[in-house]
Design brief:
With about 120 residues, this protein is an alpha/beta fold. Helices cover about 40% and strands about 15% of the residues. It has one domain.
């Protein structure tokens, strides 16, 4: 399943190779029109909590701790159903996780892609 799950910025042009395109941010991307996003779904409930997102602030030095806390959040009731839905999507189709974050390798999309590939 690992080769079926990718992640990238929502601002990049959509491709037929993307498969299902799912936005995994809690907040809509700045300056992006909904029609231009070419999404199959916007799954807010799988995004990190507002408190965790604010604490992290996209500081690469905090990424390891962010990752640990976020993986813990994915087990909580508020995230579990959305996480299971992503798992189902990944089991049946190629899946591209989208985020507005500039540093995608230090984002929740990267954590989710790894988590989905490992399960």
């Amino acid at each position: 399943m690992a080769e079926q799950i990718t992640y990238r910025r929502v601002y990049e042009e959509a491709s037929p190779k993307d498969g299902k395109r799912v936005l995994v941010d809690r907040v809509w991307p700045r300056g992006m029109r909904k029609d231009d996003a070419h999404l199959d779904e916007w799954l807010r409930d799988v995004a990190p909590s507002t408190d965790l997102r604010r604490w992290y602030g996209h500081e690469p030095s905090r990424f390891a701790e962010f990752r640990r806390r976020y993986l813990s959040e994915l087990k909580d009731d508020g995230h579990r159903q959305a996480a299971e839905h992503l798992r189902d999507l990944a089991a049946h189709d190629k899946l591209t996780l989208l985020t507005a974050t500039k540093d995608v390798d230090h984002s929740q999309a990267a954590v989710l892609a790894e988590w989905l590939s490992d399960t």
